[in-house]
Write a structure and sequence with these properties.
Blueprint lengths: L7 H12 L3 H14 L4 E7 L5 E6 L9 H4 L26 H7 L2 E7 L6 E7 L2 E2 L3 E3 L4 E7 L6 H5 L4 H18 L4 E6 L2 E5 L6 H9 L1 H6 L1 E7 L2 E7 L12 E5 L2 E3 L2 H10 L12 E6 L5 E2 L10 E2 L2 H19 L65 E6 L3 E6 L2 E6 H14 L8 E11 L2 H9 L1 H7 L2 E4 L4 E8 L7 H14 L5 H16 L9 H12 L14 E5 H7 L7
Parallel strand pairs: 1-8, 12-14
Antiparallel strand pairs: 1-2, 2-7, 3-4, 3-7, 4-5, 4-6, 8-9, 10-11, 11-14, 12-13, 15-16, 17-18, 18-19, 19-23, 20-22, 21-22
Length: 582
């Protein structure tokens, strides 16, 4: 097969695919151009999730009339003068590819006016071919209209996701840039409906509420770190607020949103030993360093960067985040009843010293001194449970307000009350047929306000929620009123259950309907189940054991975590030296 040069139109479309992957990519490039133009107000209008229209208007410096044709030419930019400038990039854009790439896969209209001009200039470009410039009346700044995105690349349209997913991508992008530039006023509209409005007053927490909601924003921990020319600021979540993936970890480097795995790893190391396996924090962090210390010319989409001294900056992220976690989440001091700072049974100076970390009342065995006992090899802890259903258990008590201790005919059972209650609630719900699911009307309806993208997801799943027993209705912009919950959740926090639903829908963009309902039920049960650290009466402990015994899968919670640990009689005998270790 002979080698030939690709037609210019085909080459432009291939190059555009590296920069413009989806409608959110268009919004990102146009936003960055507006911010580079020192805009103080940016308005984004989107129709049909960006496939029909993306319009970005700003009040920035504008483009001169005689440069408008050049603006849509490939590799034409006002932000670089020489190759040396690549080593100290201070603008968000610099490659000169964004407008050219957008114009090659859409119908593009640019209207712009500088402060010195008496009129604005307008240019139309379609499929990479630009027309002539004409004079029009328009305010200072630039307006870019992108219509019929991918109209000439139908294969790309097939790979776009549902409209609600594409809208969510745009919402998240704009909100994060609004947090990074709090002194700029942002407005975002979807199909004429307002999705985001910021005041531009510089209050980052106010904008953060649009991304995570008011309740989570109140709990976010502030990070502030400065050393020499390096600054790190932003917000991270406390250890009780997590997600099942890393998508909510956002880094800005010198004002640019980047996706850098080592930075994310540095943050996760700060949470080491504090979070459960496969749980990740929420974070929006801004790293500022000298521009010559970072290379942003790695990928056409400018989403990846490389650092001159990566270990230094990763260490800054880890230390700053860890410091914030320890400052706002100090380690609790535990002093259970019966544990004392000094043992009352031993006189001072006794040769038998007790480890101060485990200072319980001492008891000695005069008939069998420790020195006379044979050395015993400690066997591993037995965690495997006997097969089949649980035997009848006799309650012994509760430990640490978290674990139930029960005796069975084959040994001792330690039951995690939270995981056990999750399993009980889940099977109680699953045993019912759809017709047998009843709703319990709340005495007082609960009102929930959500970020715009979360509200759209919830609206789409109204019918699913109704089948599960939730009666939810719109109650204003991005606000919902919950009037009833499934009767098996009576006594639970209704808003906590509804928030669990929203979180689960957000974490899976395209779930199968049957799997979605099971996952929603499991997430709701996790949120409303008895918590660790919650004291239970003897009657409540016994009732929980009886219900767990009746479950079909009592060994694990709906998420696969074990509900109990079994210590057999033979294991206990070996531990106490009543039998040999082998």
């Amino acid at each position: 097969m002979s080698i030939r040069i690709l037609p210019e139109e085909v080459a432009s479309q291939i190059a555009a695919g590296e920069v413009i992957e989806r409608p959110a990519s268009v919004v990102k490039e146009l936003l960055e151009n507006a911010l580079d133009a020192h805009a103080q107000q940016i308005v984004i209008r989107v129709e049909a999730a960006g496939q029909r229209l993306i319009e970005v208007s700003d009040d920035g410096a504008g483009i001169a009339e005689n440069e408008l044709q050049l603006a849509v030419a490939r590799h034409a930019t006002s932000k670089l003068r020489s190759a040396d400038d690549l080593y100290r990039v201070t603008t968000l854009g610099f490659r000169g590819e964004a407008l050219a790439s957008i114009a090659s896969v859409s119908r593009l209209t640019i209207t712009s006016r500088t402060r010195e001009a008496t009129a604005a200039a307008r240019l139309l470009a379609e499929g990479g071919r630009s027309g002539t410039v004409e004079r029009v009346g328009a305010p200072f700044g630039t307006q870019v209209r992108v219509e019929d995105l991918f109209f000439n690349v139908p294969a790309r349209l097939k790979f776009l996701k549902r409209e609600i997913t594409e809208r969510q991508q745009i919402d998240t992008l704009v909100t994060r840039y609004a947090i990074a530039y709090p002194h700029v006023r942002f407005q975002l509209f979807h199909d004429g409906r307002s999705a985001l409005q910021t005041s531009g007053n510089g209050n980052q927490r106010e904008i953060l509420a649009n991304l995570y909601g008011v309740e989570i924003t109140r709990q976010m921990l502030e990070v502030a770190f400065t050393e020499d020319e390096v600054q790190l600021s932003g917000y991270i979540s406390p250890i009780n607020i997590t997600r099942s993936n890393r998508r909510e970890i956002t880094f800005f480097v010198n004002g640019r949103w980047v996706q850098d795995a080592p930075l994310v790893s540095a943050l996760l190391q700060a949470y080491q030993t504090m979070l459960m396996v496969a749980r990740y924090p929420l974070a929006v962090l801004f790293l500022h360093l000298p521009p010559e210390e970072v290379d942003v010319n790695v990928h056409p989409a400018k989403a990846e960067v490389r650092f001159r001294k990566p270990e230094r900056y990763f260490a800054h992220v880890q230390r700053a985040a860890r410091r914030a976690l320890l400052a706002y989440s100090p380690i609790p001091q535990i002093n259970p009843p019966g544990w004392h700072s000094q043992s009352p049974t031993l006189p001072l100076g006794s040769p038998k010293q007790i480890d101060p970390a485990w200072e319980m009342a001492a008891q000695t065995d005069e008939a069998a001194p420790l020195e006379s006992l044979p050395a015993i090899e400690t066997p591993p802890l037995q965690t495997e449970l006997p097969s089949g259903q649980l035997p009848l258990l006799r309650l012994v008590g509760q430990v640490g307000n978290t674990y139930l201790v029960a005796e069975g005919p084959d040994g001792l059972y330690l039951v995690d009350q939270h995981a056990a209650h999750e399993r009980v609630l889940f099977e109680r719900f699953k045993k019912r047929s759809p017709a047998a699911i009843h709703s319990q009307t709340l005495l007082e309806s609960a009102v929930l306000h959500l970020p715009a993208h979360s509200a759209a997801l919830l609206e789409e799943q109204m019918e699913t929620l109704k089948r599960l027993g939730f009666l939810v209705e719109p109650f204003g912009p991005d606000t919902f009123r919950l009037t009833a919950i499934p009767d098996f959740l009576s006594g639970a926090d209704p808003l906590a259950a509804l928030r669990a639903v929203v979180e689960d829908i957000e974490e899976d963009e395209t779930p199968l309907q049957g799997l979605l309902e099971d996952r929603l039920i499991a997430r709701i049960c996790k949120r409303v189940a008895i918590k660790g650290g919650q004291a239970l009466s003897t009657e409540e402990q016994t009732a929980l054991l009886r219900e767990l015994e009746a479950c079909q899968s009592p060994r694990t919670c709906p998420h696969g975590r074990p509900t109990m640990i079994h210590l057999s009689v033979s294991l206990l005998e070996r531990q106490f030296g009543r039998r040999g270790s082998r």
